[in-house]
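Hi R.,

Here's the chain you asked about this morning:
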Amino acid sequence: MERAVRTSCRVICTKNTENQALEHNESVLLQVQNLSKAFRKSRTLLQTLKGRAEHVKAIDGVTFEVLKGEVLGLVGESGSGKTTLGRVILRLEEPDSGSIRFEESDYTSVKDRSTMKEFRRKMQMIFQDPFDSINPRMNVRDVIEEPLRIHNVGSGEEERTQLIRRSLEDVRVNPPEDYLDRYPHELSGGQRQRIAIARTLVLKPSFIVADEPVSMLDVSVRMELLNLMLDLKDRYGLTYLFITHDLAVAKYVCDRIAVMQSGKIVELGPAVQIIHNPQHPYTKALRAAVPVMKPHPH
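And here is the predicted structure, written out as tokens:
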């Protein structure tokens, strides 16, 4: 697999479907151009004394577009830069260079806090681990109400409570009244992730970065959550950047897939074609690494 990784770093696009999509500029929601982000390596005492500073490029000149209403999958092995890219797009990490345009507005250069809040309300994130992303000292009501308070949504306690209940109903946590006063330790892993999704939805965003949203859950619960996310997408016209290392999940959920390797996108195209007819050696290696069920003959 290592040999396949180093063969090429240019982006391979499947036939002309990618070009057809890019012709419809009016349907582009998010535009990323030459985005880069590097982190400083930890140094030994000798390196520190010599003043050497080495950096690792987590994102290296990434360019792609996300169309309104689609699910763009971002796949790759651990350490390929998927999560960092999602965080940089939302500016939870600041990019070193490049540009991010959202709804045709330049999001990269925004410094004003009020303008940043306007963007953040429309661009939300579902984190991978519901155990870490929810404050254990807050009950369900407080967890979902927090973004409403930050963004001054709702004229009072009663209106916010209605928004919270509606959000819980959207993620099929019923009846909402039975869960409002519960704390995270009183919920299952699947329920915690539903609460995390409800917290994201309560602001009615148009774009969501879903960072491995089902990888921490039991296999029996994953399909329920994936179907829920697709249902919410159709109901509210959401757009997802869906980060995953699981090609089966990507095939089921995504319209298009971008394959990421060592901070670069090396292949981009329709999900079915990327899975069944990969062009880049790294994508082929990822596909080959997926275990295949071979029942023993009787």
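One quick note: The domain at 2-38+57-288 is CATH 3.40.50.300 (Rossmann fold).

Cheers,
M.
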